[in-house]
Amino acid sequence: MNSFGNASVDIDMLEREMAAEQTANLSGNIAGMSAPKSSSNRRGPMQEVDLDAEFDTLEEPVWDTVKRDVLTVGAKFSHVILPHGDKQQLLRDWDLWGPLFICVGLALLLQHNGGTESAPQFTQVFTITFFGSVIVTANIKLLGGNISFFQSLCVIGYCLLPPFAAAVLCSLFLHGIAFPLRLLITSIGFVWSTYAAMGFLGGCQPDKKRLLVIYPVFLFYFIVSWMIISHS
Fold it and tell me: Where exactly are the structural domains of the chain?
């Protein structure tokens, strides 16, 4: 009987020791979580991300904001001038500032050089260039292009830069004279813009539907180039 009593006492003591160890382990884990060193180790990577420095521009000077946006637009224009560069940057960091400037500038040039009632007005040129690019973009999306609507609109608008440069040369320096030279300059701008646009948009379509994408883009830049050559 004494042996059974001693065994029960030993079991009770063992249970108390195990309970004490569990309590010590729990208290140690909680203390470890609240310790400054452990907290810094766990939250260190999150503290390195400075969201305010990247996105908050409310306290930034206006000139710095304008300069950054101008440099961004200029970088996208350089991708159109040299289509063999980083094509993904224009698609990744899309914006509509460049297309807006080109549409407005082209409409102002053609209206200024018209001088007659048959000349296109500002709203007509702007509508053709803007809604024409929207229609071409909608065609790309309907054909199953793996590109967003605004990315496609950005590419088509920025690739109007060569025809716009041709319009500047023909309107300011060759207005009303040297038709063969104006035709050559406008044709170069047309081919350049089509080639640059397909460099960005060609890989966004299946091979079987690539011709259905090229034709509307070709037609859009041809209409814009025809307006430039006929009203300069």
Answer: 80-231
Dist. CA 197–CA 191, nearest whole Å: 10
The predicted-structure confidence for 176-226, as pLDDT tens digits, reads as follows 788 889 999 999 999 999 998 888 777 777 677 778 888 889 999 999 999
Runs of H (alpha helix) within 48-178: 51-55, 62-81, 87-92, 97-114, 122-142, 149-158, 161-172
Q: How far is the C-alpha of 68 from the C-alpha of 146, rounded, in Å? A: 29
- The helix-helix angle for 62-81 and 149-158 (nearest 10°) equals 80
Do residues 147 and 140 make contact, with C-beta atoms less than 8 angstroms apart? yes
* Both tokens assigned to 202: 């060609």
8, 11, 12, 16 alpha-carbon torsion, rounded to 10°: 170
* Confidence (pTM): 0.68
pLDDT confidence bin for 120, thresholds 50/70/90: low
Classify residue 46 by burial, with Cβ atoms within 10 Å: 0-12, 13-18, 19+: exposed
Instruction: Give whole-number Cα distances, 121 to 34, 39, 110, 112, in Å.
Output: 71, 67, 8, 9
Rg of the chain, C-alpha, whole Å = 33
Identity at 166, one-letter amino acid code: A
